Amino acid sequence: MSKSFIHTEKIIRKAKELGFDDIGFSKATYLEKEAKDLEKWLAQGFHGSMKYMENYFDKRLDPRLLVEGAKTVISLSHNYFSDKTQVDNEAPKIAKYAYGKDYHLVLKEKLNVLIDFMKDEIGDIQARAFTDSAPIMERAWAERSGIAWIGKNTLALTKSKGSFYFLAEIICDVEFVYDNPVKNYCGTCTKCIDSCPTQALYDAKKIDASKCISYLTIELKDELLPNEFKNKMNNWMYGCDICQDVCPINARTKPNTEIEFQPKNEILNFTKKDWEELNKETFDVIFKNSAVKRTKFSGLQRNISFIKNNNYENS
To answer: Is the full-model pTM beyond 0.90?
Structure first.
């Protein structure tokens, strides 16, 4: 039995102990196909105002530029699905991934523990942890490592666990036994594309992010949301789960057991009126250490106001 196989098995066991659902290993190399796709996507302006997507083009596609001597990308997934929903059906909605504590904080801590474990087992190694925190093609590496395939909604999917999970990576200068991609089970289903209210998903694995509700409610920093999206927001004030909620594969998803990702009571119990009357002080309390902080109070207020005005016009 080779040392790389022994190390791989031990790391997998440790990752599972830390709460990660899946872990896969792929060779660190230049993502040639993804480079062409990304270049075309940027040229079409589908990234909207996310100008940071244009930065660090080479680093985004080659993990060896992020970690000196990198040989492996370790991809991990962590479930965040909750079967709990907001009580008031008319209340503005928050995407499930933001129900609990900011995943950047939770997963980074777990990843650092895993890296320390790897160093104890293997010796002095170069390794860095990432979770949506650097220019890295997370879904491409998840696909290469065999922990997921890319669905028609552009999200990473697994046959048994769906798509309600976070992705994370460890790039290191150690060789392992590498995994192979898994079969794509989307078949002829197009429910995610058909259900997108803004037509951000315009074809299989094709997204105009500048039309995505998640982009509009989080990434877009304009003072006002574009009028073309009136009556198309489906009551989302932060993020959007539509293309995941309609996915038949997600019917198999089980609730996460991570205490840090459990929904805050206010998020579940606030009424439409509570959200519309939200003030800065309450926002800071509810969303302390939350991913929702990214949009800031002014951004969330803008989103709620946009939804409220649409609903008022339609009443």
So the answer is: yes
> pLDDT at position 133, please?
81
- Dump pLDDT digits (tens) for 136-163: 999 999 999 999 999 999 999 999 899 9
- Please check whether residue 106 is in contact with residue 260, taking contact to mean a CB–CB distance below 8 angstroms: yes
Give, in degrees to the nearest 5, the angle at Cα 272 between 285 and 305. Answer: 85
Backbone torsions φ then ψ of 13, nearest 5 degrees: -60, -45
C-alpha triplet 29, 155, 307: angle, nearest 5°: 135
Q: What are the pLDDT digits (tens) for 28-56?
A: 999 999 999 999 999 999 999 999 999 99
Mean pLDDT over residues 112-119, rounded? 97
pLDDT band of 134, cuts 50, 70, 90: confident
pLDDT at 315 over 90: no
C-beta separation of 80 from 256 below 8 A = yes
Task: State residue 157 phi and psi, 5-degree precision.
Answer: -125, 145
Which residues are annotated as catalytic? 132
Q: d(Cα 278, Cα 270) in Å, to the nearest integer?
A: 10
Give the closest residue to 59 by CA, choosing from 5, 118, 119, 133.
133
Neighbours of 312 (CB within 10 A): 8
* Cα gap 70→172, rounded to integer Å: 5
Half-sphere exposure of 294 (CA within 13 A, CB side): 18
